[in-house]
Amino acid sequence: MSRVIIFSVLFLAACSSVKKSTVTKTDNELNQLEQLLSGSFSSELQSKEDTSYFNISLVMLPIWTNRTDGKWMYVEQAMATKLDKPYRQRVYHLQHSGKNTFTSDIYTIKNALTYAGLQNDKSKLEKLSFDSLELKDGCTVTLKNNNGVFSGGTDGRSCPSDLRGAKYATTKITLKKGELISWDQGFDANDKQVWGATKGGYIFIKK
């Protein structure tokens, strides 16, 4: 009887270790997406070539790196002249949802300015928790990987927005090594654009 119990314990332990290794298995494509997004970006060059675009700083930082449910990133955008007062702070949850397909769930942060400059302050990162996050339902970005170029966006009119009279917002993304093109637009109930760039996306160059 004791031999049966010992065998059962060993068998369960083996199953447990297999399950854990499956969860933590390296995902090279997801790692590649995280690496392309990570770092400091700037639209300064575009703003000099076309004054209808602002000089914007964009910082994306991997956080909670011990988690095994995808990749988590802190995102901060600010005018280059107001780096201490970012106008957008988010947390992205990146997942490999299918063959060559990736999703990024978008979260807002409660009392976001409390975490401004988090990328330079470890104490702020330690305070950031799930309790501080709120999912932007309907605003998930879906990307397709085509030979290292990730492109895609939100789904139709699914992402609600009330900014400047908007009814919904859209995001279009093209990401490749050293460059991120991001086009955010807001539309009213009649599908008329009420905010965002009109010519094309912001071109962010990695520093």
Mean pLDDT: 90
Portion in strands: 35-45%
Output the number of helix runs: 4
Please report the distance between the alpha carbons of the first and last residues. Answer: 66 Å
Query: Which fold name is given in CATH as the topology?
Result: Lipocalin
List key phrases describing it.
207 residues; alpha+beta; Lipocalin; 10-stranded antiparallel beta barrel; 4 helices; 21% helix; disordered N terminus
Descriptive account of the structure:
This protein is of the alpha+beta class. The chain has one domain: CpcT/CpeT domain (Lipocalin, Beta Barrel). Helix content is 21%, strand content 41%. The chain is built from 4 helices and 13 strands. Strands 1-2-3-4-5-7-8-10-11-13 form a 10-stranded antiparallel β-barrel. A hairpin with a 2-residue loop joins strand 7 (141-146) and strand 8 (149-153).
Quick gist of this model?
With 207 residues, this protein is of the alpha+beta class.
What is the strand and helix layout of this fold?
Blueprint: H1 2-23, H2 28-37, E1 39-42, H3 44-49, E2 56-63, E3 71-79, E4 88-98, E5 101-109, H4 122-127, E6 133-135, E7 141-146, E8 149-153, E9 159-160, E10 168-176, E11 179-187, E12 193-196, E13 202-206
Antiparallel strand pairs: 1-2, 1-13, 2-3, 3-4, 4-5, 5-6, 5-7, 7-8, 8-10, 9-10, 10-11, 11-12, 11-13
